[in-house]
Structures are given as structure tokens and as C-alpha cells.
Write a structure and sequence with these properties.
heterodimer, A: 143 residues, Beta-Lactamase, five-stranded antiparallel β-sheet, 20% strand, globular, B: 187 residues, alpha+beta, Muramoyl-pentapeptide Carboxypeptidase, domain 2, 44% helix, 15% strand, ER-Golgi transport (chain B), endoplasmic reticulum (chain B), transport (chain B), Bet3 (chain B), TRAPP_component (chain B)
């Protein structure tokens, strides 16, 4: 029985709009409206955390640990945020987010028909993302 | 805190990306400029289009650069200029630029290119005086910097195709526009 280490992946643009959502496994599946709402919620929380910081130069929330899930977030210097909701204690999520960022720069940004800041509808991105997640899953279970 | 991977050097970066035949690159760019001249006829219009094309490319290139090079946020515009000259140009054009002629406030500088792969074999005819052949590069820098919250103005100062001894771009930081927070205090 393959356990999904990752429950879902979100990508939000610099204005907080959801441009990509993928869920893995039925746990934590949500419909379009919920995912949109969650994305803008996260965008706001991320921004507020920078204002709450007691020291200057805070770049936002990297990790949210809850009772039965973790949320890892990566924000590029251009403001695009990539975050995964995963099992508590799932390892190497930051590496995974960096790999997904590279896939984004390759298959989304280099696609001349992709409009910046718009929802991602690039087959090559989906394909390569699925491969990366699969490889990640195999590596985790193979231990 | 996740361990921070160190940023790559220019040569390591250049070696790690896929490369294309230099002639193909030069010919493709030349074909674009020629086609624009045929379609638009006005040299000024072509300059504007090249800049616009460069802008669109720059907005996409910057994430690629950030993902592959692992650079962290630059502390000031001086560091930004160095990163562009040593890493950015190296990664995409295979050449490094030198950063010179800083102004007193540190918001304006020149990138000097001795070597420019866009212009190999190019000779500007008399009918195209006023054409900024490499204007795509100024657009790329402007677009890339805008995506990291810096509004800049990029102009060409020296152009070897016009008889100067090097290629020199003047980059001026107009202002930093940090991301707007969703909640404003005075609302």
C-alpha cells in the first residue's frame, strides 16, 4: 500500500492567485473554490508573517507544522510561491520544492504560449512533475 | 533552517546549462532583426520591438537564472549589477561584462562587453544608422530586474557596430517597488 508522502502541491503567483493545484491521493482532496480560497489565505498569512517578524529581513513562512500534516513553502525572489502539504516529518521537501521550481522555469516559463501569472496548463509540466513525484515516492519507500 | 546551497560560479553555471551552436544563435537573431526591418520599415519601431521582445524574454529568464544559480537576495544595487555581469551574462551569453562608471548614489552603472555573440559577422549598412542592433539585451535586463522589484532604465552608450570600441549599456535604477501587502494600515 503506497502511502502518499505528499498530499497536495500549490503554486501561487506574486499577486496571490492560484496558478497550479495538484492533489495526490484522496486524503486532503479539495474542490476548485476551496483550493483558490486556501491559496489566497496562504498568500496573506505569508505576507503578514513578514510584518510580524521582530527582526527585519524576514522572508516569510518556510514551514507550518500541524498535528497531522506539514506544509513546506518556497518563495522565489520573483514572488512566486510553491508549497506542498505533506505527511508530518516527510523528509527532503525543500529539495523537492527546488526541483519543482526548476521544472516551472523549464516547462512553464519557457513555453512561449504560457501567459505569465495565468493558470498553468502545460502538459509537459504535468508530465515531468508526475515523474519527479513518483521518483521521490520510490526513493522514500525504498528505504 | 534548510541548509543553503552555495551559489555557483560563472564558469560552473555556464558548464551546467545546455548550449546551442553559436552560428545558429547569431543567424537566428540576425533573421529576427532583418524580418522586423522588413515588416516595420522604421528603424525606431524596430528598436522598440527589440526592446519589447527582450522585456518579455527577461521576465521569463530571471526565474531560470535564480533557479540554476542559487543566488540569494542581493543587499544593494551594486551586488545586483555584479551578479548580472558575472553570472547572468555568463550563463546566457557565455561572456562576462565588466561593471564600471558608478555614479555617486550607486544607482547607475555601465556594463561593458568586449565580446558579444549577437553581433558576430554583422556589419550595419548606411541605411540602418540609428538601429540599436542589440536592443534585445537592454529589454532583457529591464524585464528581468522588474520581476525582482526593480524599475530600471537601460540605454546604449557605445556600440561597436556604430564604430565604437566596445559595447556599453548604461543601467539606471529608478526605484525599488517591493511587493504590496494585501492589508494596508490606513484602510
Amino acid at each position: 500500500m503506497a502511502l502518499a508522502a505528499i498530499y497536495s502541491l500549490f503554486i501561487i503567483n506574486k499577486s496571490g492567485g492560484l496558478i497550479y493545484y495538484k492533489d495526490y491521493g484522496s486524503a486532503g482532496r479539495m474542490d476548485t473554490n476551496d483550493s483558490l480560497r486556501l491559496a489566497s489565505l496562504w498568500h496573506s498569512m505569508h505576507a503578514i508573517s513578514q510584518q510580524l517578524s521582530p527582526t527585519p529581513g524576514c522572508t516569510g513562512i518556510d514551514l507550518l507544522q500541524a498535528h497531522n500534516f506539514d506544509l513546506h513553502c518556497f518563495q522565489s525572489l520573483t514572488g512566486t510561491k510553491f508549497f506542498v502539504v505533506c505527511e508530518t516529518g516527510a523528509p527532503n521537501m525543500e529539495m523537492l520544492l527546488k526541483v519543482i521550481y526548476e521544472l516551472y522555469t523549464d516547462f512553464v516559463l519557457k513555453n512561449p504560449f504560457y501567459e505569465m501569472e495565468m493558470p498553468i496548463r502545460c502538459e509537459l509540466f504535468d508530465l515531468n512533475l508526475a515523474q519527479v513525484i513518483q521518483k521521490d515516492r520510490v526513493a522514500l519507500l525504498g528505504r | 533552517m534548510p541548509p543553503l546551497t552555495p551559489p555557483k560560479s560563472g564558469d560552473a553555471l555556464f558548464a551546467s546549462v545546455d548550449r546551442v551552436n553559436a552560428e545558429l544563435f547569431t543567424l537566428t537573431y540576425g533573421a529576427i532583426v532583418r524580418q522586423l526591418l522588413t515588416d516595420l520599415e522604421e528603424v525606431e519601431e524596430v528598436n522598440k520591438q527589440l526592446d519589447q521582445m527582450g522585456y518579455n524574454m527577461g521576465t521569463r529568464l530571471v526565474d531560470e537564472f535564480l533557479a540554476k544559480s542559487n543566488v540569494s537576495r542581493c543587499v544593494d544595487f551594486k551586488e545586483t549589477a555584479d551578479v548580472i555581469a558575472k553570472l547572468g551574462f555568463k550563463m546566457f551569453l557565455g561572456v562576462t561584462a565588466t561593471v564600471t562608471k558608478w555614479d555617486a548614489e550607486g544607482t547607475s552603472c555601465s556594463f561593458v562587453l568586449e565580446d558579444n555573440p549577437l553581433v558576430d559577422f554583422v556589419d550595419l549598412p548606411d541605411t540602418c544608422q540609428g538601429l540599436q542592433y542589440c536592443n534585445v539585451l537592454s529589454g532583457v535586463i529591464r524585464g528581468a530586474l522588474e520581476m525582482v522589484s526593480m524599475k530600471t532604465e537601460v540605454t546604449w552608450v557605445r556600440d561597436m557596430l556604430r564604430g565604437d570600441d566596445a559595447y556599453e549599456m548604461r543601467v539606471k535604477l529608478i526605484k525599488q517597488v517591493p511587493e504590496e501587502y494585501p492589508y494596508k494600515d490606513d484602510d
